[in-house]
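Pilot study result, target chain (344 residues):
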Amino acid sequence: MFPAQALAEVMLSRGWRVSLSTDARGARYSAGFPNRVDVQQMSSATFARGGILSKAVVPFKLAVGIVVAIAKFAAARPTAVIGFGGYPSIPAITAAWVLRIPRVIHEQNGVLGRVNALFAPRVNVVACGTWPTQLPAGRKGQHTGNPVRARVLEHAAAPYEPAIEGASILVMGGSQGARILSDVVPEAIAKLGLSNIRVAHQARPEDLARVMRTYDEAEISAEVEPFFNDIADRITGAHLVISRAGASSVADISVIGRPSILIPFAAATADHQSANAAGLVAADAAILIPESKLDADTLSAHIDAVLSTPGAGDQMAANALALGMPDAADRLADIIETFAEKRT
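Predicted structure:
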C-alpha cells in the first residue's frame, strides 16, 4: 500500500485523477491516501488463507470482483492500470487485460510474488523496485525503485547526527510487528549495559507487556507500540534501525540514509526479504542476520559494533543513502504518462 500511496501522491500533483481499487482488507489500510483518491472496494480472495469452505468460494469472489472491475473500467476507461501485487490487484489487472487498457505491475521485492508472476507475461511493463529482480524467461523489467511516501521524502538525506547524548534505536517488524524481534531484541539491547539509550519498538499487541517489562527491568527508556504513524520521523532520529527486510522498509531506510541490522522473514516466499536486503548488505550499509542465527548475544555484539566503533554509523548511513532512489514514484509516473502520450 505504501508504494501505491506514493504513486497516487505524485499523480495527483501532476493533475491526474486517481482511483484505488482494492478489497475490504486493503481498504482498511488506505487511510494514508490523499482524500482526492477515489477508493473503490472490489471483491477478491486468495487460496492461501482460510479453511476448505473459504477456499471453495475463492473463484466466485474473484469472478464477482473481475465482472465489477470490467464494468467500472469500461465506463471510466482509465488511461492505465497499475498493480502492486497481492490478490486484491487481481480484479483490476484482469479487467485491464480484458479491455486492453495499458497495464503495469510493480514488484517491490527481488522475487516476483505469485500474483505478479501470473500477470508478468500479460502486462505492458514490469516495474522493479529491487534490482535485480528474478523475472520469467524472456521478460525484461524496468528498474524504478520502490516509491516512498511524501512524508519519507521530507526526510530524504537527513544528516546523521552522532550519538553524543545517547543512542536511539528503532525496532520495526513490518506493519504488524514481528514476534522474533520481540523475543530477542529487548534482551540484546539490555546486554549492552547502557543507561543512556532510547528505544522505539514496534511490537504486536499481544507482545507489548512482556517487551516493555524487559526494557523496564533493564532501566532502558523505551516506547513500545503496535504501530508508529510517524515512522519517517523515527527513522530519521535513529542511530540504528533493527528491522525486517520488507521492501518498503528497505526503501525508507535507504532514502533517509540510516545504518541498519536486517533480519529477513524466514518464511517469506522464495526468501525474497534476503534478496531485498542484498544491496544494502553488499554496500556495507546494513548487517544481515538470518533468523536461524539470531540470538541475543549475536545481535548485541552487532549493535555494539555499530554504535561504539567511531565512524561506523556515519559510513553505513552514507552507504545506505547512496542506494536510495527518492525519485521512484516519479519514474513510475513517467511510465504511465508515456501511455497517455501514445493514446493521444
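One observation from the pilot: The chain has a mean pLDDT of 94. A full batch analysis is planned for the follow-on phase.
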